[in-house]
Amino acid sequence: MKLTIELHSLQDAGWPVSGEHILAHFDDESIVVYQAYRPETALYALQHGHFGGPTYSFNRMSWIKPNFLWMMYRCGWATKPGQEMVVGLRIRRAFFDRILANAVASTWQPAQYASREDWKAAVEASDVRLQWDPDHDPLGAPLERRAVQLGLRGQTLKAFATSELLEVIDMTPFVHAQRPLAMARDARLLMPREQVYSPQAC
After folding, report:
1. Residue 201, CB half-sphere, CA atoms under 13 Å: how many?
2. Rounded average pLDDT over 156-162
């Protein structure tokens, strides 16, 4: 494990209970996001330091999640078919902040767009979708707090998967080790240290 880890119980006590928040593992220069893949795709990325190969497509939308437990909910702690390997993907904060700045909500927000037509035009013009979903506890129960996931396509996806990708981390052994603790509600459950993330000022 190349990430700082801490007890889930200690972190949870300091996280916001409600509202929309990006919980993430980050430092001054980088932030880690998570994805889960079939072994062929994940192993290629681990071996080459970027995505590619016959099982990876640049012609689709790929969703990234800064929140470790949301990723665990989505992949069933690496038990769901096609999501047997979990990777942590360290990218530049400046790139992540640009993603956030260019993101368009996956549903129409009247406060942001005067009409559905304006929103649809923004969706077509952007490479990034933003979606807020209920966060989840280690057993997968939904929480009042909401977590973000970001869908990438086009040139943004290509940059994410190659030039902006600083490190690919195999999280799978850690996930396998922590899953029994999560299922048992064991207080010894560990996870990467996450704090509320705010984009850096320009």
Report:
1. 0
2. 97
